[in-house]
Amino acid sequence: MKRFLLTTCLVAAAQMATAQSDDIEQGLMDALEAYQEGEIEETREILAFVTSQLDVLKANALSEFLPDAPDGWTREDEDMSSAGAAMGMLGMNGGQMAGARYFNDAESVSLTITVDSPMVAMLGGMLSNPAMLGGQGEVRRVNRQNVLLTAEGQLQSVIDNRILVSIEGSNNPDLLVSFFELLDVSGLRDF
After folding, report:
1. For 141, how many CA atoms within 13 A lie in the half-sphere containing its CB?
2. Exposed (0-12), middle (13-18) or buried (19+): which is 113, by Cβ within 10 Å?
3. I want to staple 155 with a disulfide (CB 3.0 to 4.6 A). Which of 58, 86, 120, 176 is the partner?
């Protein structure tokens, strides 16, 4: 099952990559040409563009890990590009984010996955240590992961010290946990 999900994500990413691969390939060729001509600043600008395109591909693949909406709920994917830009302005470049909002007639829940971000590295030590979490809220074990449930209606968990899962929007901790249980935690570890 784990291999199937990973293969599915890679196929989806490859399909999305086809549309962008021409830009990426052309960018790499342009960067090499600019470098060979001694245009260092132009080379850096082109490589920054290529890197941003590669980040988009990886973020699109990450969104495949957002769970489908449970029965009676609707899922609406969130545009995480502005969040990534804000992180960049704070000097926290790197990493990918994917998010979705789930809603029904009575409630709304947001689920965000952040991978390989310096922010996750900073939170990782705290969220992976149950003794440190105790004063912040209720700590539970879900899908072999520590999760922190706060009084403010948030669930947070760090997977493999590099993936932050944040679920918020409900003061019902069992509802937040039910959304965490929908995640493919082992697949995320392999991402």
Report:
1. 2
2. buried
3. 176
Q: Report angle CA 125, 65, 3 to the nearest 5 degrees.
A: 100
Say how far apart CA 70 and CA 63 lie, in whole Å. Answer: 17
Closest CA to 156 of 128, 182, 132, 175: 128
Residues 6+ apart with CB under 8 A from 184: 2, 5, 65, 67
* pLDDT, tens only, 128-161: 666 665 567 888 998 888 888 988 889 999 988 8
Query: Are 146 and 133 contacting, i.e. CB atoms less than 8 angstroms apart?
Result: yes
Q: How far is CA 53 from CA 73, 114, 145, 185, in A?
A: 32, 18, 32, 26
Low-confidence ranges of the chain (pLDDT < 50): 1-14, 16-17, 82-93
**pTM of this structure:** 0.69
